[in-house]
Amino acid sequence: MIDVIAFLIEHFQDVDAFPPRHDLGVLLEEVGFDDEQIGDALACLDGLRYEPLIPASALRASTGTRIYNAEELDLLPLQVRGLVHFLEQNGALNPEQREFVLNALMNLPYDDITVDHAKVLTLLVLWAHRSELPVLIGDELMAALNGDATMQ
Questions:
Q1: Residue 82 and residue 94: Cα distance in Å, rounded?
Q2: 113-145 pLDDT per residue, tens
Q3: CA angle, 151 as apex, 42 and 88 as ends, to 5°?
């Protein structure tokens, strides 16, 4: 799935530039991705339509600290939670985007919840929202697409 997301980020200006879902699936098959990877990536893209339990306007105005529930603490490794906190504290993610990233992570199989996958999902959310981010943080997140990431 992460490879499909990386391909989409690298080959499309934004999510509005995608062809219709069926055509996108065919395109991804032609590039060489398998059905499972495509399905997982498209499901992740559907997750961008996820509505957090807290209204977006309240999240954008939030200045508090994110408290994780028991399920999130069980599934999200400390390094992943630390990365999300770091990105939010340094202006790369706003609280609304943080919730999109966390939702996407919670929908991954347990073994796929890694720092590198969190970076790619962060890029996906920022790309879909057409967000600007600090250059050094952007470089580290982009390195995750190529497997050269070091920031944790």
A1: 15
A2: 999 899 988 888 888 877 776 655 666 676 776
A3: 70
